[in-house]
Amino acid sequence: METPFPPFEPNGPDDSARGPRLREIPLRLVVPNLITILAICAGLTGIRLAFENRYELAVAMVLLAAFLDGIDGRVARLMKATSKFGAQMDSLADIVNFGVAPALVVYVFALDQARSLGWIAALIYAIAAGLRLARFNVMAERENKASWQSEYFVGVPAPAGAMLVLLPVYLGFLGLETDRTFAYFSSIYIVLIAFLLISRLPVWSGKSEGNRLRRDLVLPMMLGVVLYVALLMSYTWEVMVFTVAAYLISLPFGARRWRRKYGTLTIEEPGVGDDDIGRHI
């Protein structure tokens, strides 16, 4: 069979008909996405380890996932490799690492003793984390951002929620008996953390560019960080319990600072409410 003649093209070959050409992508654009993928792998591996009753490794993997998920955006900005694809990947990783993985780990460790109530508590937390992340994405996409957004979070951020919700696991590692009573109290605690995630409580972020540290406090602060890390490596679960308690105690102080500055107990602003929900569903 003879090969047919190609069609006559008076203006030359039409490259658009061939589809998009493959092009090389700079490595710096791939690195942040690889970190995000590693974070998802760590979170999912933490779930598997929990079902295998290897709880300490499970918690370590969930915390590692939260750490990796927290630095991928910063790495992208430092390498000037931000992209819409990376932002979508990061959002999908957040719901796994900050919502699903911690909820399942704490359920397998303690909440299953409470039967259906424990599972309901885990579901409430996972859904609350998803709602919290959706609200964050909506606020981040707004062109005109409020001045306070660089200083305060609306509700407890999802990464902190993942750390807080694992408190029953930390206490179990310290020898507290994980019986049915413990499971019931843990379920109530997890529902409270879920409420903090979706609340409009002003939570100080510490990211404001106006916050500066006195020069004489720089070295003591650096030594304090070194001491904290050293204690964390030696007394991991005791330090994690202390960190959770310190974070929860700090919440009323952040809200009090907001009230002194803006005169309200919660963050109420037009533009983050029913209209936003209607536009983005």
Automatic annotation (TrEMBL):
Localization of this protein: Endomembrane system
Its EC number(s): 2.7.8.8
GO biological process: phospholipid biosynthetic process
PANTHER family associated with the record: CDP-DIACYLGLYCEROL--GLYCEROL-3-PHOSPHATE 3-PHOSPHATIDYLTRANSFERASE-RELATED, CDP-DIACYLGLYCEROL--SERINE O-PHOSPHATIDYLTRANSFERASE
InterPro entries named among the record's database cross-references: CDP-alcohol_PTase-I, CDP-diaglyc--ser_O-PTrfase, CDP-OH_P_trans, CDP-OH_P_trans_C, CDP-OH_PTrfase_TM_dom, CDP_ALCOHOL_P_TRANSF_CS
Bilayer topology annotation: Multi-pass membrane protein
Catalytically driven reaction(s): a CDP-1,2-diacyl-sn-glycerol + L-serine = a 1,2-diacyl-sn-glycero-3-phospho-L-serine + CMP + H(+)
Protein name stated in the entry: CDP-diacylglycerol--serine O-phosphatidyltransferase
Native source species: Rhizobium fabae
Gene3D superfamilies noted in UniProt: 1.20.120.1760
Keywords: Lipid biosynthesis, Lipid metabolism, Membrane, Phospholipid biosynthesis, Phospholipid metabolism, Transferase, Transmembrane, Transmembrane helix
Principal location class: membrane
An example Gene Ontology CC term for this record: membrane
Annotated TM spans: 29-51, 57-79, 91-110, 116-134, 154-176, 182-205, 217-233
Any Pfam family matching the protein: CDP-OH_P_transf
Domain of life: Bacteria
One MF annotation (Gene Ontology) recorded for this entry: CDP-diacylglycerol-serine O-phosphatidyltransferase activity
Sequence similarity: Belongs to the CDP-alcohol phosphatidyltransferase class-I family.
Ranges of residues in domain CDP-alcohol phosphatidyltransferase C-terminal: 217-252
